[in-house]
């Protein structure tokens, strides 16, 4: 999922806020609904409100918080450049941002009064971001997480949609799918999957609080459901499917990066498409197995095999994703993936390496590592304990 948004809005829309300070720490999109009947569309590279397709209709406020560290371009701050030329010249050059996108590094101001929060940031920075947000968001806000990865602590694996719910006390869904950033920016046809099951208090609950103390959306605000999410995210070239399987969508987004590293390793060795196909097949089976083991009551296997978040994203990630490319180049250059990340990714973070290590630590704690030979092999290659040449033997 790309990290720069294009918001095409009506002239009467309050200016959205695009908060940027350098290397990606957090990227949060916020939407404030003023009344029922609002409509939105996914812009070139993310959520946007588009009145051009709905003339005369009053819309929502859109804010973007994208916080970065050390992203000055020469003597100029990236925030100032975005405000002046309406282009992220460092991380997505050549893609125009509309004039109503304003760069502002104030995270708390961006989330204030927002009804919907969309999280899109490297998972390494989610804890700090959530800590800064506490007490500054609406108690009845709803969220969608595009964060890829899992958090492992005390022998427990936590999805980032779950972590957002735990830390902020708001309901959170997940978004993932086969949509490579430059291709979305070029408005090429692609799909995504949103895992979102409206909590009971957003449907027909009479009480003000749910049993887990999450607040009901007020009656004068639109219910965040499949219909609204599709209107917010969908564009003619960007198709959206909404499913109830929040955990499955989140797991697909996390685990596919482990498999993409393996695909990159074999590509770096010059092995052909048959080798990559074997990696994809084995990887898909291990992704499904992980879901069955640890989320048996919530994960639907069809999310992995029939949705964009599953098999489609796995194929795309194993062909053109950042983790695939980095693993491939690391083998070709004879350096570790960690070294390549430091030297060539312009301050951006790989999600696959840290996810691999966290998942394998978790599996080892529970004595299940042997049930996931591909995940284990990728982890050992990352740590320099085995070579890519040994991969076929390790997968027997």
Please tell me about this protein's structure:
Keywords: NAD, Oxidoreductase. It catalyses: sn-glycerol 3-phosphate + NAD(+) = dihydroxyacetone phosphate + NADH + H(+). GO terms for molecular function: glycerol-3-phosphate dehydrogenase (NAD+) activity; NAD binding; protein homodimerization activity. This protein has 396 residues and is an alpha/beta fold. It folds into two domains: 17-244, Rossmann fold (3-Layer(aba) Sandwich); 247-394, N-(1-d-carboxylethyl)-l-norvaline Dehydrogenase, domain 2 (Orthogonal Bundle). Helices cover 39% and strands 16% of the residues. It contains 15 helices and 13 strands. Strand 7, helix 3 (126-133) and strand 8 form a beta-alpha-beta unit. Helix 7 runs parallel beside helix 11 (322-333) and helix 11 packs across helix 12 (337-344).
Helix-strand blueprint:
Blueprint: E1 17-19, E2 22-32, E3 41-42, E4 47-48, E5 61-70, H1 78-85, E6 102-103, H2 107-111, E7 116-119, H3 126-133, E8 142-145, E9 150-153, E10 156-159, H4 160-168, E11 172-176, H5 181-185, E12 190-195, H6 226-233, E13 238-243, H7 246-268, H8 273-294, H9 301-306, H10 308-320, H11 322-333, H12 337-344, H13 352-365, H14 373-382, H15 391-394
Parallel strand pairs: 1-5, 1-6, 7-8, 8-11, 12-13
Antiparallel strand pairs: 2-5, 2-7, 3-4, 9-10, 11-12
Helix pairs in contact: 3-4, 7-8, 7-10, 7-11, 7-13, 7-14, 10-11, 11-12, 13-14
């Amino acid at each position: 999922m790309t990290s720069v948004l294009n918001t095409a809005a009506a002239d009467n829309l309050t200016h959205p806020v695009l908060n940027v300070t350098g290397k990606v720490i957090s990227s949060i999109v916020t939407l404030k609904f003023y009344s029922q009947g609002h409509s939105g569309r996914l812009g070139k590279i993310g959520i946007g409100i588009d009145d051009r397709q709905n003339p005369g209709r009053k819309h929502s406020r859109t804010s973007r918080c994208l916080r970065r560290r050390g992203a000055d371009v020469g003597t100029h701050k990236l925030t100032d450049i975005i405000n002046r030329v309406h282009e992220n010249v460092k991380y997505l050059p050549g893609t125009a941002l509309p004039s109503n996108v304003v760069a502002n590094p104030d995270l708390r101001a961006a989330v204030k009064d927002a009804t919907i929060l969309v999280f899109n940031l490297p998972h390494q920075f989610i804890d700090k971001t959530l800590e800064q947000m506490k007490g500054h968001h609406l108690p009845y806000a709803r969220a969608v997480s595009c964060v890829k990865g899992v958090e492992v602590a005390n022998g427990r694996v936590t999805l980032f949609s779950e972590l957002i719910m735990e830390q902020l006390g708001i309901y959170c869904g997940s978004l993932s799918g086969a949509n490579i950033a430059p291709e979305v920016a070029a408005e090429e046809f692609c799909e995504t999957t949103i895992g979102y099951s409206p909590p009971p208090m957003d449907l027909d609950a009479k009480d003000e609080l749910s049993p887990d103390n999450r607040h009901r959306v007020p009656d004068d605000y639109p219910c965040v459901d499949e219909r609204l999410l599709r209107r917010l995210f969908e564009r003619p070239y960007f198709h959206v499917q909404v499913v109830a399987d929040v955990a499955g969508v989140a797991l697909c987004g996390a685990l596919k990066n482990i498999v993409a590293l393996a695909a990159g390793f074999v590509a770096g060795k010059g092995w052909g498409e048959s080798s990559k196909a074997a990696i994809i097949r084995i990887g898909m089976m291990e992704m499904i197995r992980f879901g069955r083991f640890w989320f048996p009551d919530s994960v639907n296997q069809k999310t992995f095999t029939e949705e964009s978040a599953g098999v489609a994203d796995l194929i795309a990630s194993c062909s053109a994703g950042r983790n695939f490319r980095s693993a491939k180049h690391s083998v070709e250059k004879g350096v570790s993936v960690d070294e390549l990340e430091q030297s060539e990714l312009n301050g951006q973070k790989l999600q696959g390496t840290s996810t691999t290590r966290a998942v394998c630590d978790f599996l080892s704690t529970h004595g299940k590592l042997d049930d996931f030979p591909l995940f284990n092999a990728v982890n050992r290659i990352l740590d320099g304990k085995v070579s890519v040449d040994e991969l076929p033997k390790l997968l027997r």
